[in-house]
Amino acid sequence: MATTMTCRQLGGPCELEHVGGTADEIIVAQDRHLKEAEQAGDASHQEAREAMKGRWRHPKRSLDWYFGVKRTFAELSED
Amino acid sequence: MTSTEEFEAERPRLRRLAARVLGDPSGAEDVVQQAWLRLHATEEPIANLPAWLTTVTTRLCLDRLRARVPVPVEAVEEAATGPDPAEEVALADFVGAALQVVLDRLSPAERVAFVLHDSFGFEFATIAAALGTTPVAARKLASRARAKVRQPAAEDRLAAWEVVDAFLAAARQGDFDRLLELLAPDAGVTADLAAVAAGTPARIEGGREIATFFNGSAHAALAVFAGDRPAAAWYHRGRPAVLFDFTVVDGVVAHITFRAEAASLTAVQRRDGGSRRARPGAGHIGDAPDVDPGEDQHHDQEEH
User: Whole-model pTM?
Assistant: First the structure.
């Protein structure tokens, strides 16, 4: 069953909806969205983009965020 | 000067040559003695005795090497010309044990081509005559031998877990050159969907690109086994969250797969060097810190 999460729910500034069967799919879609926003020169997404980019370097914080998104996804899926 | 006197003048050189090729001083004596017998058995006029003796001695060595080691017969081409006069020989009078170990990795023909050219300075035309092949083929044999000699011996290669740990250490220390040494030139990185979502790159191609990516990072990765393979992992609340699954081939990293799918993490177990941690249940809650303390040292670094 597909679940919807917005860019804002994933730490971004807008209400763009990502639909996916797993939290991983939605996060990857958000990553793609942030990259596209950056390439388009959209400064409002830059902070979220930087946070996403920095996750490789900061696994403690990024994994907290990652598992938080998974929990939110699981809760939304149950609704 | 009689042929016997000429032979005796050549004997020390022939003995050194045979000893280097065979790696066996007593075998070298036998070979030189056989060359002496051949000299007295031949009825053909010999225009250049040193060259003739070099060819005969080399071929006798080759016969011995081929009898000693069951290696595939070299595909050699027909010699374009007959035996050439020997060139001036650069004598080498020391057979290092280390060199001998290296030579043992070579096929007989490679060994002869390598020793005669690189140690004794023979021209490839002379080596080709001794091997019954062409100078081009002799050059290829020596080149192949040289490449093999440069490679570390299997017994000298690091164990897979040592390669993984050396890689992680080099990454943490920002030792780019060491990372390059530990990566196959055509190495690759891939990741499953969950790992990408957790923050890893989806794909990196090429040893240099991978070294660039890891350079100065991996502070938070802990040493683990993934099944039987040495690997590394990020931990979150005592559980493995992202596995760095290494494929090590011939002492270098050939591939790294980032895995975060749950099924990939079930067989993850902490290790100390090449040993599993004794405590049962490793890889579960309480087994490991979330990340190592070095993580925060890199907050200001750029992402690769």
Answer: 0.55
Architecture of the domain defined by B3-154: Up-down Bundle (1.20)
Amino acid at position B177, single letter = D
What are the extents of the domains in chain B?
3-154, 157-298
Residues near B125 by beta carbon (within 8 Å), at least 6 away in sequence: B81, B84, B135
Beta strand B183-191 with B222-226 is unpaired
A74 touches B at CB < 8 Å: no
CA distances from B123 to B112, B117, B287 (A): 12, 6, 64
Q: Could you read off the pLDDT of B213-262 as tens digits, one per residue?
A: 999 888 889 999 998 899 999 998 888 999 999 999 888 999 999 999 99
Tokens 């020390």, located at residue: B12
Residue of B189, B192, B258, B291 to mutate, interface with A, max A Cβ within 10 Å: B291
Task: Tell whether the model's pLDDT for residue B23 goes beyond 60.
Answer: yes
List the CATH code of the domain at B157-298: 3.10.450.50
